[in-house]
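Hello,

Following up on my earlier ticket. Below are the two sequence lines again, exactly as submitted.
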Amino acid sequence: MELGWFVKLRSSFYALLLHVIAAAMLIISLDLSPKSILQPKQNINIVNAVAIDKKQVEKELQRLKQAEQKKQETEKKRLEELEKKAKDAEKKLADAEKKRVEEEQKLADTKKKKEQEQQKRELEEQKLAKLEKEKEELEKKRKLEEEHKRQEAADKALKEALAAEEAEVQSEQAQELIDKITADIYRSVVNNFNKSGLPQGLSCVLRVQLIPGGEVTNVTLVESSGNSIFDQRSVTAVEKASPFQTVPDDVESFERLGLRQITFRFIPEE
Amino acid sequence: MNSIIKFINQRILFILLFLAPIAHSADLEIIIDKGIENALPIAIVPFGWSQASALPPIDVSAIISDDLARSARFAPMEEQDMPQRPDDFAQINFKDWQKLGMENLVIGQLNQTETGEYIVDFRLLDVYKGKQIVGFSIPSGKDRLRHTAHEIADIIYEKLIGVRGAFATRIAYITVIKNRDGTKKYTLQIADADGFNPQVLLQSSEPLLSPSWSPDGKKIAYVSFESKNSMVYVQDILTGKRERIASNPGINSAPAWSPDGSRLAMTLSKDGNPEIYVMNLSSKSLQRITTNSAIDTEPAWSHNGSMLAFTSDRGGGPQIYEVPASGGEPKRLTFVGPYNARPRYSPDDKYIAVVNGESNTYRIGVLDRKSGQFDILTETRLDESPSFSPNGHMIIYTTTGFRGTELAATSTDGTVHQRLALEGGEVREPAWGPFMNQ
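Thanks for your patience. The regenerated structure is below:
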């Protein structure tokens, strides 16, 4: 019930509004007549209006108004349509433009993207190359280190082998040296052992002390032949052969070779 | 299992390590299986002499040096090569002698006492030890000085060779001098072993042969033709007293003393042809040793007294045979060459020296009785009458060359030969006397 008065009021308002609009339209239409392409008709209507009953007029006016309205509406419609068409076209164009722009943008974007990708790719490639390079360098380094290690190991092995060889050589050399010294001592003692006139089948043993340089410092008869001349000739042979030239001067070699004491067994073949 | 081995290894290693120094300290042993055979180097430094104002009567060191050189066992140093001439121990610089390889040094002094006697001091020194080997102070007289020198040589020889020297011994020999009228003078002499101090025992215009020393060196048996027939005599050297031992018909020759001096082996032909007999010198009884139609002669008595060696041509030519001194079956010893004669036993009876002849060449040969090995010692053409030195190291013999017949000596191994120059013409049948003071 309370809405009822509002609806009534709104309807009254609408009727009023409609009247206002109609009156306004009339004024506008009058006002607009000179400019309208339908001006002659207007003139006519004016003449007729005078003579017409108000009702009629109003009716006519209504009609006119309606026609005009219709015409305007149509025009409006057409205009609107045109406008719309134009608008559409424009919109279409705009759309196309937009689309083009968009595509261009898109292209640009793509390009950019592509470029970026390229860049990125290049970057990545660079990075990759760098990485590769680094890797290579690392590899190189590793290889170098490996080589170095290998070299070191080889060096070490070589050194060890050399050392071993040296040790062996040294021991061989020591043996060779001992052999050489022994041969030399043997030779020089034999060359000084005068067995002239001595009975055969005798033998004696001497213990001989040496000092570095080969000098004989002491000769001890540890096993007599039973013949004092034979023993004495043996002792003299050693004493006369002294110093043994090949016996080393340096104490270390001398001791290492064990030359401090030598046993001589005199047992001449018959 | 492995750990055990490892453990053992470690143990072994440990033991080895532990033993290593000991093993290392084991002596280097060198076997001397060879030697040289050289004359021994020795330096006989001229002896000092007490009387500076006069010359010494003899050169003692020179006599010693010559003796040792003649033996061929020594190589005495020449005086001009000596680095110093000490006559006292304190003066000796042994290093100087060592540098020259000199092994032995003899120094000494000849001193004359107020009474005119002489004393010879000498020292034999080991140069490498710097020590005296032997030293003596020997009283002597003017006439005995040479003998004293020979005695010193004997001592040195014995100390360094190991066998008694035979320098202080004598030799007997016969010299033959042709007179201008064509006759000959035969002289039996004795002299020192170096040929000095000759002493005439007997002179004869008829041949004297085969001098033979009694084992004590006091008598000489010999053969004399002074009665036209050969006869065997024994003469006392000191007194000159002689005794005719064998004067049988026919040949009386080649006397040889038994080692004990009681018997004399000889060749007699009183029973037909020359045979070997042994005479008992005190009883003059004879024992016939050989019985053979061939000639048996030149007996020699082995030094152990058990055997007699002699020359016999029972096999066709002269060869050496050996028979027991008490008699028995002779056995032939020599087979090398067509001629072997005049046997002489070495003092140890191991060898027999002979004259070995072939094609007019006569040389001294030595037979090893045990092995039968026969060696020729001499190289000249007419070498005869070998006689061993009493130590067996030398053989004296005669050799005939363009200078006539001379005395020569060789070492028993034949390495050294030398002539002994003796005055008085041709020398025959040398006989080396025994050691003087056995």
